[in-house]
Design goal:
With 467 residues, the protein is an alpha/beta fold. The chain is built from 15 helices and 20 strands. The structure holds flavin-adenine dinucleotide.
């Protein structure tokens, strides 16, 4: 009873891929998922379903993918883990297709080549039911069951069982009852700690209540705690993957998780109530979301732009803020002068005029060196703010998942502080660290990381089981 070859903690893409692959290899597998209903919430189900590596099609030549990872992480990544992503992601996509998962190209850019089908509607707000990632999870779960595996709902993993440093199983609460599961391998795939306010406050930001949970809000860091208790090394806890959202997403479910405001912010400026810039817009939306969240007042950010930015980058995202935001009831401020805009948007008019004047001067001369804070221009082109009506969009940071966590090796084995694999313990997906984060707050793709390392974990467990 309750004896398996492999136990998986969490039924997101990392866990379901690991379990299905292991079942295909003939292992007896159970997935413990704390969600209680068949369409249980998780970030995977709510995601956009775009499988990319460093914003590059995973089937492009390795050099292109490596360049995408390097550009986004500025070289801050574990090379062995990055190499696995480069080499394996295309193959895992092929495997997913064999399982019945369908993909379409959702746009002309490289990173949109593998979007789970059907894609979400291109409108603001929450839209996951019947969309690609939801269908993918249901398809894999059906396959898992056909292969003899089990997805146990309402099962919350609590602690690992160890004997002489080796993982032997775990204890879980199933329908309120403490239950023991035995297996020689456990894969932790619980999706990170983004929804654990205490951990977030401890590691990332002083005021997490002022940051929007941009996802299923299921990641409580249980897996990281369990792994740490087993002696695992923990890494890169200080960054998250997220985006800039309209500030009203704190109270209005129609304006999140899309549209993101990143594309507008990287072309324009982000100011505080004093009308002063306080982040490097050129570092990109994920970086800005982290910087805003780390500040004392994460709800102080306002995007300031002009009509060409609103009509250009404002319309160019896959789910464009213009016109999706206003259609969903999001407030956009407009003014025929910067002073008027400042008045309606609650910004200091003198501060805003001075900030825009300095910024426009830098745009005209191409010399951004004198701006405070500095503004980089190598990734995103800044546009001057010249043409009325001027536009202000109140913004906030949205946290999707935490980038750091359990340290793993290329086979998804959990490593100890001494760098040795802990026998029987694996981790995959947003529960792990080592690929993303760092000074540039690099993002390489949440679905690719989760699917690839879930797959790797299963392969390694299966290999060991045969020996
Ligand atoms: C709105 C949105 C859009 C996104 N778009 C994209 C995109 O287009 N491309 C991309 O690459 N990434 C995207 N992402 C990120 C991506 O969804 C995640 O990185 C990825 O799904 C993580 O998968 P996971 O399996 O690690 O975690 P999750 O999908 O979060 O699954 C973890 C599961 O573990 C369960 N769990 C937690 N604790 C326990 C416990 N103690 N016991 C049992 N079960 C537990 C949870 O209930 C959950 O079901 C998006 C995310 C969101 C929210």
């Amino acid at each position: 009873m309750n004896t398996y070859d492999m136990i998986v903690v969490g039924g997101g893409i990392a866990g379901i891929v690991a379990a299905t692959r292991a079942a295909e290899k003939g292992l007896r597998v159970v997935v413990l998922e704390k969600g209680e209903v068949p369409d249980y919430k998780c970030n995977t189900r709510w995601s956009g379903g775009i499988v990319h590596v460093g914003y590059v099609d995973p089937k492009e030549p390795a050099a292109n993918i490596q360049a995408g990872i390097a550009l986004n992480t500025r070289g801050y990544t574990d090379p062995a883990l990055a190499q696995v992503l480069v080499e394996q992601c295309g193959k895992v996509i092929d495997w997913l297709r064999v399982q019945g998962v369908r993909f379409i190209r959702s746009g002309s850019q490289s990173y949109l080549a593998w979007t789970m089908a059907p894609p979400r509607a291109l409108v603001a707000g929450i839209d996951w039911k019947g969309r690609g990632p939801d269908v993918m999870l249901r398809t894999l779960t059906d396959r898992l069951r056909k292969l003899g595996g089990t997805l146990l709902l309402g099962a919350k993993a609590e602690r690992l069982i160890l004997e002489n440093g080796r993982v032997m199983g775990l204890e879980a609460t199933v329908a309120g009852v403490a239950t023991r599961f035995t297996a020689s391998a456990v894969v932790i795939a619980d999706g990170g700690f983004q929804s654990n306010i205490h951990l977030i406050r401890q590691h990332i930001m002083p005021n997490p209540e002022a940051v929007k949970q941009r996802g299923g809000a299921t990641g409580m860091g249980d897996g990281m705690r369990m792994a740490r208790e087993a002696g695992a090394a923990i890494t890169d806890l200080d960054c998250f993957y997220g985006h800039l959202l309209h500030r009203e997403s704190m109270v209005n479910d129609k304006v999140w998780p899309y549209p993101e405001l990143d594309g507008i912010a990287t072309a324009a400026i982000v100011v505080n109530h004093a009308g002063q810039r306080f982040v490097n817009e050129g570092a990109g939306g994920v970086n800005m979301a982290n910087m805003i969240a780390r500040g004392a007042d994460p709800l102080c950010a306002t995007l300031v732009l002009d009509t060409p930015i609103w009509e250009g980058p404002g319309r160019s995202a896959r789910i464009p803020a213009n016109p999706a935001l206003e259609r969903a009831g999001g407030t956009i401020f407009r003014g025929s002068t910067l002073r008027e805009l400042a008045g309606v948007a609650g910004l200091d008019p003198d501060g805003l005029e001075a900030t825009v004047a300095a910024y426009n001067k830098a745009c005209a001369s191409g010399d951004f060196g004198g701006l405070t804070p500095p503004r980089t221009t190598d990734r995103f082109k800044p546009m001057p703010i010249l043409k009325a009506p001027f536009v202000a969009i109140p913004a906030c940071a949205g946290i999707t998942y935490t980038m750091g966590g359990i340290r793993i090796d290329a086979d998804a084995r959990v490593l100890s502080e001494a760098g040795e694999a802990i026998p029987g313990l694996y981790a995959a997906g947003a529960a792990t660290g080592g690929i993303e984060g760092g000074p540039a707050i690099g993002y390489t793709g949440g679905l690719s990381k989760a699917a690839v390392f879930g797959f790797r974990a299963a392969e390694h467990v299966a290999k060991g089981a045969k020996q």
